[in-house]
Amino acid sequence: SQVDNKQGLTVKHLKRRQAFHDDARTALHKANERLEDLILEEQMTRADLIQKKSAEEALQSLHDQEKANHIRGMETAENKQIEEQALENYRRKKFVHKQ
């Protein structure tokens, strides 16, 4: 009777232990699936960040080019104005000397 009782406890104990291991295995499987999902999400986020950074750098480059073109345009206009003033001064001096 006592041996049966010990075996009963042992069987009951083994069943509880098996249930615990099954639960742990299920939890581990779910955790691994979640980890895989998070790794994929991180990879996608990194790829998105790289793409956004690349677009931002391209936009900055375009802005810098436009700024440089604007400055060159202003310098060209300023040089043209200086040339026109010099030509006008030359014409005035020439006209004054002719009279």
Write up what this structure looks like.
With 99 residues, this protein is mainly α. Helix content is 98%, strand content 0%. It has one helix and no strands. The longest helix has 97 residues, at 2-98. It is rod-shaped, with a radius of gyration of 42 Å.
Q: Helix share of residues?
A: over 70%
**What structural class do helix, strand and pairing data support?**
mainly alpha
Characterize the overall form: rod-shaped
The largest β sheet comes out as: none
Summarize the entry for a quick read.
By secondary structure, this protein is mostly helical.
List the keywords.
mainly alpha; rod-shaped
Question: Which helices and strands occur, and which strands form pairs?
Answer:
Layout: H1 2-98
